[in-house]
Amino acid sequence: MRVLLIIGTVAEILLVVGVLAWYLNQVAGSLHRTAEQLADVTWGVRAVETQTARIGPGVTRINGQLATIAGALAGVAGLAEAAGAAAPAASAAPAKASGRRPRTGG
Q1: Exposed site from 1, 28, 68, 86, fewest CB < 10 Å?
Q2: pLDDT tens digits for 36-78?
Q3: Over the stretch 19-46, which tens digit does the pLDDT of each residue have?
């Protein structure tokens, strides 16, 4: 009986080790496939990086021009407000001078 238990225990140990080896082999294969896919992704990212490297200097130049335009907008807005304030006064003067009443819709 004791020999039978020892043989059973050894068989179970061998079975567990065999199953673990099989699972580890499956995991290793999955990791290998993942590594191959990551290599493809890395190649693609480097290709995109190479193709977009020329954008950086252009963006810097455009940002400088936009900063200049943004600085000028305050002055332009002030001129537009001044022109807007002067426009009602200028258009009201000819209406009073003509002596006519403005037309109403209808």
Answers
A1: 1
A2: 999 999 999 999 999 988 888 888 899 999 999 988 888 888 8
A3: 999 999 999 999 999 999 999 999 999 9
Q: How far is CA 16 from CA 2, 13, 22, 26, 86, in A?
A: 21, 5, 10, 15, 93
Say which residue the tokens 């499956």 belong to.
26
3-state secondary structure 33-72: HHHHHHHHHHHHHHHHHHHHCCHHHHHHHHHHHHHHHHHH
pTM equals 0.45
Domain borders along the chain are: 1-53, 55-89
